[in-house]
């Protein structure tokens, strides 16, 4: 497949997001990849140790990703869910399995540069085996119009001694209405890190995220970090849930938010519970404006208050 | 005069107390002008008032910059006219890269990286080591302050207010400072140097002595320092440094006279 067969607009929007599109144009880059043009699979490339299968269904696809036992995959696996249309329904059913002792990074790019009433739904199942290192990063871009209605629901099972990192980014463009539900079940000795970043920019933007981690195995550990900003009437609600349901578990939830302009709402709620006295679950939350001194320092460099605020939001939401 | 203060009084934000009162002095274009005074004398507050911070508004007096009355202007507007301030304790901000920070005030948005490299070199930091770092807690106090200074230099302002550039540095190497000041001078920027240290002040051409919220004298720096030493009782230091300084060469009897005057006042 050549570049011409994948919509330019989607590629451009990814480039604007500092993503090197060469990485996942079929025939380029070394990594395995699956490209979706709305509800049509427009390219699949597997590689040794990575099985990728897509099947088109009404209004969407089923995507299977299997990382074979013991496979250590250097190049990230790219899943590109692009839509250049303004509206319509795209439903994705990813089924992701990482067999024991495997290591991989999966990057999902949800790029909808012209979205205006588009609906994107996802119903994902992740099964991560024992002794794995698995990173899943999902970056969204919903264009500059009214954004999209995005509703992903995922269940993730993380096996013993595995390290699982989950990253979700929705910080550029107009988000629209976003509802994310994530349940992560962590087995013995596993380590979970979940980082969520979102920026609601106007009246039409509503972002609701519920990120839950259930520490089900002994000595499982987790850190949820949620960072959000809302401005000019945007709304961001985030729930960080952590339960310590086994011995010697350790969980932490951190929420950081900035509210700017009239009518904006940001709410971060940590819900934590430990049923065993040997387990600890803690939380930390900060909500508010940037310190005046920070604004003064940037304004003394000639920036307006608004420019200074944008720089600070950008810094806060920067990928770590 | 590049900057001129006329009868400036700065109260606390609640207007209950006066921090500095009836301050008048001018800063000549191209000069290094020191404001010297002990801790708590109001130096930082005066700097904030010149920068136009909302919480340090004048209750009396006027500030002129290049002959224009800027008393009513906000921070951004003053910065755009060419005034900037390097804070005594600049903030640490996660996620803000040194490169981005240095670029904020650049007028020319082309060749940002080259300009940033130049600015880092000016403050004697190795560009390669710093340009991709963040202005967060990973920097030492001294590194952060040098980067602050670099960021103000990168703006190419007409006036830089330096609030205690030496404070919080792990080790103060006077030669290093002199070297940086000379480089800034070559870039044709005027410096308002705030310090409570006599030795740092020695780079200045002129000075104003601030004492308990009042400006006691404005003169050539050596003269101002002599008064400062007299007030602070630093006779030995005064004799040693002022004798060594070829610019001034006060006679011992003159120094004794000033100290005597001070004792009697
Ligand atoms: N915002 C403020 N509110 C109340 N008092 C202040 C404020 N800022 C400064 N002051 C007081 O004014 C005096 C001068 O402070 P400052 O300008 O920081 O002095 P310096 O920089 O010379 O050490 C101090 O007594 C300080 O406590
Ligand atoms: Mg001070």
Give an overview of the whole structure:
The complex is a heterodimer of chains A (320) and B (265). Chain A is mostly beta strands and 320 residues long. Chain A has two domains: 3-289; 290-320, no CATH class. Helices cover 9% and strands 56% of the residues of chain A. Chain A has helices at 8-16, 292-299, 305-316, and strands spanning 33-37, 40-45, 50-57, 60-67, 77-82, 88-98, 103-111, 116-128, 133-141, 147-158, 163-172, 176-186, 191-200, 206-215, 221-231, 235-244, 250-260, 265-274, 280-288. A ten-stranded mixed beta sheet of chain A has the order 2-1-5-7-9-11-13-15-17-19, covered by helices on one side. A nine-stranded mixed beta sheet of chain A has the order 3-4-6-8-10-12-14-16-18, with no helix packed on it. In chain A, strand 3 and strand 4 form a beta hairpin. Chain A starts with 7 loop residues before the first helix and ends with a helix. The model of chain A has no long low-confidence stretch (mean pLDDT 90). Chain B has a domain at 3-82 and 157-221: 3-Layer(aba) Sandwich (Rossmann fold). In chain B, strands 6-7-8-3-9-10 form a six-stranded mixed beta sheet, sandwiched between helices. Chain B is built from eleven helices and ten strands. Chain B has 265 residues and is α/β, with parallel strands linked by helices. Chain B is 39% helix and 23% strand. In chain B, helix 7 links the parallel strand 7 and strand 8 (190-195). In chain B, helix 10 (235-244) runs antiparallel to helix 11. Residues 43-44, 88, 163-164 of chain B line the site of magnesium ion (MG).
